Amino acid sequence: MQQIVTRRGFLAGLSAAAALSSTRLVCGADEAPKDDGLVWHDVSTWGVEGKGFADTERYYDRLPGRAKGKVRDVVWNLSRHSTGMSARFESDATTLHVRYDLMGSALDMPHMPATAMSGIDFYASDDKGDMRWLSVVKPTNQRMNVKVVDGVAPGKRTFMIYLPLFNSPEKVEIGMPKNAMFTPIAPRSEKPIVFYGTSILHGACASRPGMGIINILQRRLNHPTINLAFSGNGTMEKSVGDFLVELDPLVYVIDCCPNMGAKTITERCIPLVKQLRDARPDVPIVLVEDRINSNAEFLPARYEYHMANHKALRESYDTLVNDGYKKLLYLPGDHLLGDDGEGSTDGSHASDLGAMRYADAYEPVLREAMKLA
């Protein structure tokens, strides 16, 4: 991963996050007794949105079991994170509980809280039908069984949950009082927007899952999305492209430049676009430039690195257009984190503020791509 001084600490945290831990589970302090007077609903029985493949080893994996040994090991391990998956249900419950066991024992990273890395985020529909944040689980152990919220205003509404960004649950169950109404809402059937990217789209460094860039865009566009971003390992690989082409998306988004130098972009961008276009000739493809680190104005070598990346991607895009490729869109990277230096956690990764700015930049381009689909 191309970064500044935080590289070592981030990759150390990432290694812990990606590891498939066999650590003994420890019950959370707020765990309810077995006879808790609640009705529990297993999310997998009605399904999550944001899952592209049915033949996964674990329900909340992002790539199929067939990908093991075909993609690099680190990509496979990262694909087991549940980032980008969400589920919806309708209820009049005024109290909500959740219980789940986490795959990984590392709950947080030095620059990313447990709420985002390992928490489950709850949203609820307001009077206009828009999804608004409600509450988030604050993980303290691999096994969580907690009351998420109490005293919700009476009335039937839609609830939505977002799953962990850099960890993954083994099983997720929503608990509510026995007298509460519950109706599961199946995942939407519209063709999704599929994102292939780096740690930034994977979710670093949001404060909670709903603030991941792709999850923000899912709400804004009111459209299904699939997150195939792999932290430190979004490098336009053919092996990942082999699985991207199995999907039937509305739009492809390729945002891999932060993990690539100019030479690698030049070598891999055009072959990846051709691979996608050969399989899905009518699907729009959005190419996204490298963001500029929020402190790059003080680091000339870093700034030149970004400019070289921009030049390489633009030249690849121009070549494709000149070769007759249609429905290609381009998102410049200069302002993805904003212009005031305040949009990142560590110079590289978006804070919540930076994620909103990313979404601001992405939204008009994606709306244009959706019209072309």
How would you describe this protein?
It is a single chain. This protein is α/β, with parallel strands linked by helices and 373 residues long. The chain contains nine helices and 14 strands. A five-stranded antiparallel beta sheet has the order 5-4-7-2-9, with no helix packed on it. Strands 11-10-12-13-14 form a five-stranded parallel beta sheet, with helices on both faces. Strands 1-8-3-6 form a four-stranded antiparallel beta sheet, with no helix packed on it. Strand 4 and strand 5 form a beta hairpin. The chain is globular and about 65 Å long.
Give a nutshell description of this structure.
It is built from 9 helices and 14 strands. It has 373 residues and is α/β, with parallel strands linked by helices.
- The proportion of residues in beta strands is 15-25%
Q: How many E-type strands?
A: 14
Report helical residue fraction: 25-40%
Discrete helix count: 9
For the biggest sheet, the summary is: 5 strands, antiparallel
Distance between the termini: 33 Å
From the structure provided, what is the oligomeric state, counting identical versus distinct chains? single chain
Main sheet: strand order:
5-4-7-2-9
Give the structural class: alpha/beta
Write down the overall mean pLDDT.
92
The string of secondary-structure elements, in order, is: HEHEEHEEEEEEEHHEHEHEHEH
| Morphology | globular
SSE inventory with pairings:
Blueprint lengths: L6 H12 L19 E5 L30 H6 L7 E6 L4 E7 L11 H4 L3 E5 L5 E6 L6 E7 L7 E6 L6 E9 L4 E4 L7 E5 L1 H4 L10 H9 L3 E5 L8 H7 L6 E5 L6 H18 L5 E4 L11 H23 L5 E4 L20 H21 L1
Parallel strand pairs: 10-11, 10-12, 12-13, 13-14
Antiparallel strand pairs: 1-8, 2-7, 2-9, 3-6, 3-8, 4-5, 4-7
Helix pairs in contact: 5-9, 6-7, 7-8
